[in-house]
Amino acid sequence: MHKYILRRLLYLIPVMFGVSLVVFTMMYFTPGDPARIMLGESAPAEAVEDLREELGLNDHFVIQYGNWLKDLIFNGDIGSSYRTRRPVSDEIIDRFPTTLRLAAAGVAVSVVVGVPIGIISATKQYSFLDNASMFTALLGVSMPNFWLAMLLIIQFSVNWDLLPSSGLDSPISYILPAITLGTSSAATIARMTRSSMLEVIRQDYIRTARAKGQVESVITNRHALKNALIPIITVIGLQFGALLGGAVLTESVFSIPGVGRLMVDSIGARDFPVVQGGVLFIAIAFSLINLLVDILYAFVDPRIKSQYK
Amino acid sequence: MSSANLKSQMVTDLHVATKKKKRSQWVAVWKRLKKNKAAMIGLVILVVLIVTAIFADVIAPYGYDDQVLQNRFQTPNSEHIFGTDAFGRDIFSRIVYGSRVSLQVGFIAVGIGAIAGGALGAIAGFYGNRLDNWIMRIMDVLLAIPGILLAISIVASLGQGLTNVMIAVGIGAIPGYARIVRASVLTVRDQEFVEAARAIGTSDFRIIMKHIIPNAMAPIIVQVTLGVANAILSAAALSFIGLGIQPPEPEWGAMLSEGRQYLRDFPHVTTFPGLAIMITIFGLNLLGDGLRDALDPRLRD
Residue B108's pLDDT band (boundaries 50, 70, 90)? Predict the structure, then answer.
């Protein structure tokens, strides 16, 4: 088991190198001169040129990449933002907890809403409730989340003036963004829960429990759910990872100072160090979450656990 | 006949018999699909969308860029079914023309992903070993970056505009198709008819194209349908952030972005583009789900 985890972790390293190279290449070819952007349009050409030398922007691609990599590995330094001159790592770490909280809130919403709906749909298959739920779930997946965000804002902030539409002043501020993020996840989880439960319910051991006279609700909640939970947990974990990436749009609409919005702003401002560091960071976080989900899955599914005993 | 001719004849016979079986298989799939009402609704939506895109010039009452500044922000009325936007342009016409953009992005992006991804997957699966390893590792690199972020980065480095959006979304779709095709190749690769085809000297390329790819068609079709939906969503998201299709091109996501500033006073500007996106994606999802069920091998024979 530990060998499996170790191997997966080691495998991450070349992949992350690949990510860093891809990101660096993309930024290298992005049009726009960071030096000029930093100094402004009216700055004299020599000042711009001096800054370019200082930042190492005139070096060959391989040298720039090598330097960046060297700083990253030996000094833990991923450069400083062109805009704020602060270390990139500071910029990211300042904002990461916010995005994490947002993603967690989104996952919470999606689980609380999605799992029960999925269970009910499965136990009452083909009923009106089932069809209506699955219809709504499909709508949820089909809605662009930035549009949902705007609809929620129109209804809850503008018309009813109940919930804040931007910033993160108080805990209530999390509500609308969490709903926005959580909706499509909830829909996916509901559908996944339903199909997983349906598969489990057909199994023989459920029939046996029923034949033995067990109460239906106990069958559902203890026997069926526990087994159906395995793929559901996987989906939840993957959704968490996806939410980290999807937070980009939600943070933009609600003006939340998170990593996603930092990425969008930095790309627009040609703040390359931030983009390079940020995408690398997100990729690592994303991969680690996927790895955690795989490990969790192996732990929870006794069939897989026994393989590694 | 000589033994070479005999082998050739056998492979051809097997091939013809397989083709006949395949044709009736597709007919069976279509019949199963027709029974699924939800999937049929999805198909109708898709057809309506395609027709709208093709005949946009005829269907739209106004041009997509006809600015009539006296008519700004009209709510739906008899002259403008969906109202007008910040520049007095007819929203209905913009949505009709926007369907062209959305469909273009959807199909071309998925096309790029399916062809490039499929080719990579076929090569990886067929030749195995180190080539397989390397290709899949590159796919993992692409998969490590969450979709939107990858698309944003690519568009940022390539520049804005319709073509680059298609490329960006297409690249993001590649790993998915690579995996599907590779999995199909792996299941078929060691079967006897492949060995037989090799024995009579068929080139690897022909083997892949004629024998292996048809096997992968079922999951590819499902993935394509859902992929078009995803591509349209991604394009809308990119335009929403301002990194995609540029004004005055009518793109549904861009229309949402423009309407965002006027959310408080004129919410109707954002309602219809959002609905358009949602209905399109919804229909494609219905169709994709239906196709997946209809193509499910467990229900076959």
Answer: very high
Q: How many separate domains does chain A show?
A: 2
Residue span of the structural domain in which A99 resides: 95-308
Same domain, A61 and A145: no
Average pLDDT over residues B234-257: 84
For the stretch A223-245, pLDDT in tens is 777 777 777 888 888 788 778 77
Please report the pLDDT score of residue B297 as a whole number. Answer: 63
Write down the pLDDT at residue B300. Answer: 44
- With CB atoms and an 8 Å threshold, state whether A26 touches B277: no
Percent residues over pLDDT 90 in chain A: 1
Residue A5 domain flag: no
Domain boundary pick from A47, A77, A107: A77
CA distance A176 to chain B (A): 16
Look at residue A20 and tell me if it is in a domain: no
Does the residue A144 lie in any domain?
Answer: yes
- Across the interface, do A241 and B146 touch by the CB < 8 Å criterion? yes
B interface residues, A as partner, C-beta within 8 Å: 137-138, 140-142, 144-149, 152-154, 156-159, 229, 233, 236-237, 240-243, 253, 256, 259-260, 263-264, 267, 270, 273-274, 277-279, 281-282, 285-286, 289
- Cα–Cα distance measured from residue A178 to residue A115, given in angstroms and rounded to the nearest whole number: 17
Tell me which residue of B87, B86, B91, B100 sits closest to B61, measured CA to CA: B91
User: Contact A246/B146, CB-based, under 8 Å?
Assistant: yes
pLDDT at site B279: 93
- Of A14, A27, A282, nearest to B149 by CB-CB distance is A282
A54 plus A185 within the same structural domain: no
pLDDT at B301: 38
Give the pLDDT confidence score for residue B170 in this predicted structure: 93
Average pLDDT score, chain B: 84
A290: distance to nearest CA of chain B, Å?
9
Residues of A in contact with B240 (CB under 8 A): 144, 146, 249, 252
Q: Do A26 and B153 touch (CB under 8 A)?
A: yes
Domain boundary among A22, A49, A77: A77
Least confident of A49-58, A132-141, A299-308, B59-68: A299-308
Supply the pTM of this predicted model.
Answer: 0.84
Please list every residue in chain B whose beta carbon sits closer than 8 Å to the beta carbon of residue A106: none
